[in-house]
Amino acid sequence: MFVAHLSLTDFRNYAHADLALEPGPNLFVGSNGQGKTNLVEALGYLSTLGSHRVSTDHAMIRQGEQSAIIRARLHHGERQVLVEVQLNRGAANRAQVNRSAIKTRELPRYFSSVLFAPEDLALVRGEPSGRRRFLDELLVLLSPRLSGVIADYDRVVRQRNTLLKSARASGLKTGQLTTLEVWDDRLVDLGSQLIEARTRLVADLAPEVTRAYESIAGEDHSAGLTNQLSIFGGGDSDEMGEGEGLFGVISAQDAAVNFKKSLERLRRNELDRAVTLVGPHRDDLVLQLNGMPARGYASHGESWSFALSLKLAAAQILRRDSATGDPVLILDDVFAELDEARRERLAAAIIDVEQVLITAAVHDDVPPALRAHTVHIRKGTVVDEGDLDG
To answer: Which residues does the annotation say bind ATP (predicted)?
Structure first.
């Protein structure tokens, strides 16, 4: 799959933009603050229904306007698909595919992308919640039905926590205990499905991350992934923290057995603290570099390369397993943080991806092999090369 054309109306600093794109590398060049990242943010939204920069859709609507439109023409083999989403300040967002209305949540079925941006450094250095979100977003791209499992699980956790708070405030009553056991069953059922799916995904990702990191940093370095599951831990802290990870896939059946045991063991603590202490919402993805936890040990450059490797591995998994074909690989302001050797190795690693979109403030930061189709951006406008000196 690749994007042949992107059109924006009142999106970020673009009153209007029309941009033809090519298969293979596409380079967006411009000084900071000109709108390069806004272009790739728009495409990322079509894939994930979210921004990697802000938490609300309203921030992406041009100041003073009530709506913004992102429209893209996609090529998938011989098939062409026109996808569109309208972001609204005062109403629900609306989406179309080939001019026919669809539910907005269905958009990612038609387009997949993997975006790496400076914010992704938090995958290595940040809290477990970001790593859980990374896994869950990839799971949904691979298997859309899991979106419902994840949403239902989050809802059960919230409702169970509400019941625990009520029980702590009033003293546990017989009816509350019965209701809690009902929520326990639902929590275990949904959570065990999610644990199996995540551990299976991590088992697939781990060798791809190892290969991706070696391709960027060289063979003297080794990166790995393991799971840290709260159903096998103590559940005494809000976030589990660092520790040894678990290898391999945990079946839903095995997860359910251990999940139930952990809930029974932690019942008193949960009632005292009025919070669900065990489950996928407390798990972590352990990142290891040369046998050590990357969080806290990796340098800035190593952390950057590790976060990039996670995204390259995700793209490789999607290329192999996704029904929508190759995802579009988006690299936002990546090359400025890499030395020349790593730039060249990264270029070699991605040159065969069906479409790559790259942003850079400095043209020469990007290896020549990735500059074949260069687009210059200035003040929210696509600039012809002949006008660059004007």
So the answer is: 30-37
**Residues in CB range of 64: below 8 A, 6 or more apart:** none
More confident site: 168 or 59: 59
From the annotation, which residues make up the binding site for ATP?
30-37
Q: How far apart are CA 201 and CA 271, in angstroms?
A: 33
Residue ranges of the annotated binding site are 30-37
Q: Is the pLDDT of residue 384 over 70?
A: no
Mean pLDDT of 33-62: 92
The 3-state secondary structure of 145-188, one letter per residue: CHHHHHHHHHHHHHHHHHHHHHHHHHCCCHHHHHHHHHHHHHHH
Other beta carbons within 10 Å of 271: 18
**Nearest Cα residue to 52 out of 62, 64, 43, 65:** 43
Asked whether the predicted pLDDT for residue 235 surpasses 90, the reply is no
CA 193 to chain centre: 20
All structural domains of the chain = 2-112+327-387 (3.40.50.300), 128-295 (1.20.1050.90)
